[in-house]
């Protein structure tokens, strides 16, 4: 009994010692450090090597003469954009209405001349832009070229891994003539390589490291093992990419592995319906200020056609009045907080799939068919669709614009806004694709919230939202969904004190307001100039 007890103690001591040694080994093992560099990443040596390789591609065959094709070359980006106004060649009454003429504005001059230290502002903007570029740098945006006749086979697109997870790299292979030995090299920056299986006759060096070498005298065996090569991400980042160098004797190739979480879907449970349930799909949002009479009219008109649709109201009146009723949410803001701040508040409270924006002086009619807007959003890739506004004169306005940004170098880019649209939408003959639409639109709630509204724009602003949404929102405009605009015509002697107060706030435009707009365009969006109809 004593010997048996002693043996158990001895085995227990050996087991404990082994576990201790294992724990110490794990603690001392390189690569298990919890310290991770999360600073904005600069291009790695591999990216610099790739950049040089791209230059070599572009500078090759310099002994071959070439002839520039002017009509094509003019369409290439020159990084030297200019904002030039159209020349005024026609001098007729209302000529600008019939033949819209582009105007130009030098945002740099307009904004900096009001600053006490303009050069300091320019330096600050440059620093902010440099920081923005570092934050948004993604190696997956670097162009990659697979050389023709390279013996290396590798993926050029579509390889993704979740942060700190492992995948098998698809498509790796080596196609070359038989020789005494075949070798390939793999190098990464944000992860390590390994193999999910072994193959006889294939040597593996550097498994579990950023640089791995595979070699074999038998090419088929090497290619078989390449089917099991894994990549494990080791540096956590929610969205980035690793550039992998894949090479053999005399040949190099590059490909990217995207690292990032999958996009979490935002699905709206509006119930299964054979027809569109507008009350479950759409919330109407509006902002009001000193126009409770107009607000009552628009609510009454909505209830005539959509009695159970939720209406969200943002209100920045100094002395707010109660706005009550079923399916109404009334939110009080600080006095005079402003137009875009109110939009942000109203849209932030929407929980339905779609949000319809309508001004508080609009009037719903039998032609204000929200079902048509929902139909095009459900059946197309559009994120937002505008309607049309009928004025008291009978004129129907769709206010369609295209927006483009032209690269302009260190001083900033050029913003160009034009009347018009890109093309008609197939299957919806009354609808077109544009970049900016009228102030009556329906959008996917999550996309509108993603762009947001700049609260600095207190009394004037509209196009700024669509400029911020460029590259985020896919926008359409349909002329067959029409809302009426209440009359703004008031004779001076018939205006009430409230109407006079509203006009004072609404149409007040100071140098501070002008400077705010200049700052938004010049500094926030980094434009040096803009042109527009």
Considering the chains and any ligands shown, give keywords for the structure.
533 residues, 15 helices, Immunoglobulin-like, alpha+beta, Spore Coat Polysaccharide Biosynthesis Protein SpsA, Chain A, elongated, 11-stranded mixed β-sheet
Describe the structure.
It is a single chain. The protein is of the alpha+beta class. Among the domains are: 148-260, Immunoglobulin-like (Sandwich); 278-532, Spore Coat Polysaccharide Biosynthesis Protein SpsA, Chain A (Alpha-Beta Complex), CATH 3.90.550.10. 30% of the residues lie in helices and 25% in strands. The protein is built from 15 helices and 26 strands. Strands 13, 14, 15, 16, 17, 18, 19, 22, 23, 24 and 25 form an eleven-stranded mixed beta sheet that branches. The longest helix has 27 residues, at 2-28. The protein is elongated, with a radius of gyration of 32 Å. The N and C termini lie far apart (101 Å). Mean pLDDT is 86; it is low at 19-33.
């Amino acid at each position: 009994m004593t010997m048996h007890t002693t043996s158990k103690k001895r085995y227990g001591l050996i087991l404990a010692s082994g576990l201790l040694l294992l724990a110490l080994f794990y603690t001392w093992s390189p690569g298990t450090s919890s310290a991770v560099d999360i600073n904005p990443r600069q291009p790695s040596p591999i990216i610099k090597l790739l950049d040089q390789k791209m230059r070599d591609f572009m500078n090759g065959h310099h002994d071959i003469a070439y002839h520039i094709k002017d009509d094509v070359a003019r369409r290439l980006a020159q990084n030297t954009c200019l904002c030039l106004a159209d020349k005024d060649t026609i001098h007729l009454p209302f000529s600008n209405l019939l033949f819209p003429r582009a105007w130009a504005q030098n945002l740099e001059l307009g904004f900096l001349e009001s600053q006490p230290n303009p050069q300091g502002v320019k330096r600050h903007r440059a620093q902010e832009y440099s920081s923005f570029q570092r934050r948004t740098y993604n190696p997956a945006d670097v162009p990659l070229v697979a050389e023709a006749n390279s013996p290396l086979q590798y993926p050029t697109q579509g390889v993704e891994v979740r942060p700190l997870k492992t995948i098998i790299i698809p498509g790796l292979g080596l196609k070359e003539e038989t020789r005494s030995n075949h070798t390939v090299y793999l190098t990464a920056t944000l992860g390590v390589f390994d193999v999910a299986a072994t193959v006889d006759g294939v040597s593996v060096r550097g498994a579990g490291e950023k640089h791995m070498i595979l070699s074999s005298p038998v090419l088929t065996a090497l290619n078989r093992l390449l089917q099991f090569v894994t990549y494990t991400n080791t540096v956590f980042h929610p969205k980035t990419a690793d550039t992998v160098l894949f090479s053999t004797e005399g040949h190099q190739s590059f490909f990217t592995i995207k690292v990032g979480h999958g996009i979490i879907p935002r699905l709206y449970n509006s119930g299964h319906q054979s027809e569109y349930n507008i009350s479950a799909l759409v919330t109407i949002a509006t902002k009001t200020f000193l126009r409770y009479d107009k607000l009552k009219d628009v609510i009454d008109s909505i209830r005539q056609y959509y009695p159970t649709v939720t209406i969200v109201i943002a209100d920045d009146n100094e002395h707010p009045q109660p706005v009550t009723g079923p399916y109404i949410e009334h939110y009080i803001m600080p006095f005079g907080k402003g137009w875009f701040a109110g939009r942000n508040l109203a849209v932030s409270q929407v929980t339905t799939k779609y949000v319809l924006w309508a001004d508080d002086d609009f009037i719903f009619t039998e032609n204000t068919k929200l079902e048509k807007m929902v139909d095009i959003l459900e059946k197309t890739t559009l994120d937002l669709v505008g309607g049309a506004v009928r004025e008291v004169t009978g004129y129907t306005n769709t206010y369609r614009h295209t927006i483009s940004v032209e690269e302009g170098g260190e001083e900033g880019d050029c913003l160009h806004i034009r009347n018009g649209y890109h093309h008609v939408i197939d299957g919806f003959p009354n609808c077109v694709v544009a970049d900016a639409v009228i102030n009556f639109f329906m959008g996917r709630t999550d996309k509108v919230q993603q762009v947001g509204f700049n609260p600095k724009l207190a009394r004037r602003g509209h196009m700024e939202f669509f400029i911020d949404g460029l590259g985020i929102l896919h926008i359409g405009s349909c002329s067959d969904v029409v809302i009426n605009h209440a009359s703004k015509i008031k004779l001076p002697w018939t205006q009430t004190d409230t109407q006079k107060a509203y006009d004072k706030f609404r149409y007040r435009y100071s140098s501070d307001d002008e400077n705010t707009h200049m700052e938004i365009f010049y500094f926030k969006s980094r434009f040096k100039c803009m042109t527009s109809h």
